[in-house]
Input
Amino acid sequence: MELKATTLTIKNRIAYILINREKALNALNVDVMDDLSLLFESMLNKQDLIGVIISGSGEKAFAAGADIKEFVSHDQKIGYDLSAKGHRIFNKIENFPTPVIAAVHGYALGAGCELAMSCHMIIAGEKAKFGQPEVNLGLLPGYAGTQRLPRLIGRAKAIELLLTADIISGEEAVQLGLANYVVPAGQEITKAEEIINKIGQKGPEAVAKTLQAVNAYYDKAQGGAEVEMKLFGEAIASNESKEGVAAFIEKRKANFG
Output
C-alpha cells in the first residue's frame, strides 16, 4: 500500500494514522484525502484491530484545514464533486466498525475539524483549537461540518460557530460536547490508547454493532430504532453474547477470543 501524505503504524492491535504534512500544518490536500480513503478501505480486512488513532505531525496542528491552494479556479461541478468525495471518505471513518479517535493537538480547523468530527471520539490537548472558519473565505464547510457540528453541540451553538468563524479551545470543546477530554499537551495519544484498550476488552461484534446502531440514529434514510432492534437481535443470538452472558452469571471475565 503506497501512501503519499500519511503514515500507518500498527502496534498492539491499534492502528496509528499520522498526517505527515508538517510544513503545511497538515492541511488536507488531495493526497491526504486519498490516503485516508485507502487506509480505511484496507483496514476493514484487519479483523484483529481494536481501534484507530489519527493525529498530525509536528506540534502546531492536527490539521489546519483543507489545502486552499487547490481551490483556485474550481467551478460549481468540481466544487460539488470535491465535497461529495469528502463526504464519502469521512463517512468511511464514521462507519468504521472499531473505534476511531482523533488525537488533536494544536489547530483542527475547517476540514481538519470536520475530520476530527468524523471520528467516534476526540481527545484534545490543552493547546488544541477547533473551528470552522470557512465563511471567512466566502465558503461553508464541505465535508459534513454543517451536519456533524449541530449533532455534537446543538443547533444554536453550531450556527453561532459556523457563522462567526470563532475558534474555541480544547476546554470549551469538551464543555460543548465536541471533544471527550482535554489533556496536557503530548498526552493526547496516551489517553486515546487508554480508551481503546478498555474497549478492546469488550466483545468486538457488540462494539461494531453499537457503532452501527448509533450512526443509524443520524441516518435519515433508515430508522435508527429499527436498526438497533435488528442488530440487538443478531447480537443476542451470537456466540459472543452467549459467552458474555455466561461469564456475567458465572462471575468471571469473558473470553471473547
Notes: Residues 6-199 form a domain with the 2-enoyl-CoA Hydratase; Chain A, domain 1 fold (CATH 3.90.226.10). The mean pLDDT is 93. The two ends are 29 Å apart (CA to CA).
